[in-house]
Structures are given as structure tokens and as C-alpha cells.
Amino acid sequence: MSGAANMSGRARVLVSLALVAAGWRVDGSGVSTAQPTAATWEHVAWHVNAPAGNGTPVLVGDLACFTSEPTTLVCVDRVTGRERWRAAHSVVDSLPAAAAAALQATLARAPALRAQLAQRSRDYSLGMRALRSGAATPTAADLRAISDEMAGLRALLDGVVPYETADTHDEIGWASPSPATDGRAVFALFANGVVVRHESTGVQTWTRWLGAAALDKLGYRGNDAASPVMAGGLLIVPFRNLTALDPATGRVVWIGPRYAQYGTPAVARVGNRDLLVTPDGEVVDARTGAVVAKGLGHLGYTGPFAVADRVWFIGSDAAYDSTDPNRGSAWRLVLEGDSVQAKPLWDVPLPTRDRIYGAPVLWEGRLFVVSHSKQLLVIDASTGAVLHQRALSTTRGETWASPMIAGGHVFATTIEGGLIEFDASPPFALIAERRLPKGPGVMALEGNAVLWAGEDGLYRLAPP
């Protein structure tokens, strides 16, 4: 059995322990011990009405927790769907009392300031029209005064914007990062920069604001989507910078390199050390924040994928409108004394120019990759050879979420509610295509049930 095949077995063991530490794609591997059946998908056991974000729902004891737009964390009974609690998280609520009071007063003025700016903008436009027509008033000096006033209003509003949660302006929204859990508490990160810890009872232990988001990403301007992960006993938060927080207190333990990608950092393990691998190709010690290796690759819209000491970069660093081909590369992380070396294993071009938003999933030595337009690549994890390629479906909807594996089957989803199930063994035959509620297409699997994040809330699908 190949090393990659052995690692897929390790991934299955890790998923069985997912309730100890879980989050995005359960433990990050995308492999589940669940056994959904054909009957699973035919019956809605319950539905919780709350506009779901793009994150993976997580299981915390007897709770199912998910993020809801714009900045709400919702936890329900995982069997009955009865809501236990929900909490919204504004920037103001994450600041010390004195700062929050001052900011609240400024925020309260914002609607009037915007109305004043809009009125003065109209005055300026009408004044410019009158001046061009030869009217005596307003004068050029009058217009300069209006322009100066508008600049002052814009400056005041610019100072308010980082503290506001404005209307969601694109598909990414404010609640795309998946929550995480250490088995006792649930942690959530929102694109307004707020990170928070709640006990399973709903009690908020701490909250921290990490600052305003850096919206400019690779060829695109949008909110953050990378998810927090547990590593090295710390809560690792990929927002502005890769940052480690003490999960018990929220205290900042270290601040690492800049983080401006959409993909979640991968967690590799070498010996007894947890290592974080960023989409920028940096390897960071989870305990200290030290960068111990660089140059592994660069991904714009997804993150690297790691199992044990192996790391794969599958995708492209090209801008949103580029048609450059994707590449794949593999690395092995090796301890040499106190240092870490990244040993290259392979680097190959991939036969697709489709953007890849989801991370791969590993099963029996094969990497399964699904592009945004539902193109499937099956790659030998040890050599990089493309073993299989085909279009999965011609139905509407892009694939944003990473594929999942359960019961030896691969599940790929679309934002239109499409679910494509196929065999994880050659010849990778199609098993079924299903239509589920429209939404981001992210899910968590447990037993014979599925938690599905829909546009209008969370669904539990299970045999009756």
C-alpha cells in the first residue's frame, strides 16, 4: 500500500475523533466515517430558518452549530433541530466599554452623515451645471467650499466603515468562515474581524476584534472566507495576519505572516509538531508562529491540503479572469534537528483551466479535485499523474465547496443545490445526482444523516 493510501487511513481515524477538535471539513480532511444511504437524501428531519453562511456546520456535543449572515452563530439540538441559542457579533460588542460607548455615538451619526453627503453631492452637481451655463451663482469659491465639505464628510465616514457590518455585497458575505470546536466550546470568526468563543450553553467566554479586513485579495475584492483551525493547542485565526489565540482566554499568543487569501491554512503534523501551511506556501510552527519553510506554492482561491507530513498544492495563483492552467505539486515536511525542510515530491501542470475553489480530498492514494464548473480530476497522490478526467455534470451551478468522502463515495455539490455522488474506486462511476435546497453546498455528515447548509438555513437530512 502506498504512503498516500496509508495517510488516507489515518484521515479516517482522525474523523472518528472529530468531536474532540473539529471545524472546516470536519478535521480538514473531508473524509467521514458516516454512512449516508439513498433514503438519507429523501427526508428532511428538520430545518432551522436562518440565512446560512458558506461555512461547514460543526458538531459540539449534542449541538449542531453554524454561522448565519451577517454575523450570527446559531446552535441547535442536533437530533431535533430545536434552537438552543443564537448570538450576533458586532465590532462594538467586542471592544472595551469606554471605546464601545464612544464608537456607538459615532455609528449613530453615520446615517445622518451619509444623508448630508448625498445632499451636498447633489448640490455640487447642480452647482456645476449652473456654473457651466453662465449663471451668477454659485461661484467657483462656493463649489470649492462644498467640495471641501464633502471631503470632510467622506473622511468621517471612512473612519466609521471598519466598525460597521454593511449589507453583504457579494456571494462571500460575512459568515463564510466555518466555526471550530475543541469539543467543549465553539469558536467563530466573521469577516468584520470579530472572533469569539461560546460555551455549549451559549455563554460568551470572550470576544476579540482583530481589526478591519483587507478586502483586496488576488484579482478580486471581497470579504474573508478562510476558517479558524485548532493546532498546537491554540486557536489559529487566518485574518489580516495568521494569528494564534489562547482558546481559553482569547489572548493573542503570536502574530504571524500576512494572510490575504480565501483558502484555509492546512494543518500538517511532523513528529509531535503541528505545522500550518498557508496558501502563500509558508510553513509556520503552530506553537510559536515562526516561519520555518517557504516557497511551497501559491494559491489564490483555495488552500493547500495536508495529511500527516505530506502537503499538496492544487490550483492556480492567477487572477479571477485569467485562463492560465492549474498546477499541482506535492511536498514532504521533514524534521532536521530543530528545523523543518520541505522536500519536493512532484510538480506538474494540470489539464484544466477552470478555477478551483475547493481543496482536494484523499482516498486510497488518490486525490479527488472538482473545479468550479464541475470538472473532475483524479490524481495519483504519490506521482501527480492524472488518472481520470471528466465533466461530472451539465446541470446549473458552480462548485464552491470542497468534495467530501463517506462510505467509499465522493460527494460534490453546487451552489444551486446539486449533489453529485460517485464511486471513489475506478472507474469512478456516477451513483446519483440529486437536487437539494439551494445554498453554498457545504455539509457535515454523521451516522446516516447529513447537515446541509441552505440559502435559508440549516437542514438535517436523515432516513425517517
Structure description:
There is one protein chain. The protein has 464 residues and is an alpha+beta fold. It folds into two domains: 384 residues, Methylamine Dehydrogenase, Chain H (7 Propeller); 71 residues. It contains three helices and 32 strands. α2 packs antiparallel against α3. The chain is globular, with a radius of gyration of 24 Å. The N terminus is likely disordered.
Ordered list of secondary-structure elements with their pairings:
Elements: H1 3-16, E1 31-32, E2 44-49, E3 58-60, E4 63-68, E5 72-77, E6 83-88, H2 97-132, H3 140-160, E7 180-181, E8 185-189, E9 194-199, E10 204-209, E11 229-231, E12 234-245, E13 252-259, E14 266-270, E15 273-277, E16 283-285, E17 291-293, E18 305-307, E19 310-315, E20 327-336, E21 339-349, E22 361-363, E23 366-370, E24 375-380, E25 386-391, E26 404-406, E27 409-413, E28 418-423, E29 430-435, E30 443-446, E31 449-454, E32 457-461
Parallel strand pairs: 1-26
Antiparallel strand pairs: 2-32, 3-4, 4-5, 5-6, 7-8, 8-9, 9-10, 11-12, 12-13, 14-15, 15-16, 16-17, 18-19, 19-20, 20-21, 22-23, 23-24, 24-25, 26-27, 27-28, 28-29, 30-31, 31-32
Helix pairs in contact: 2-3
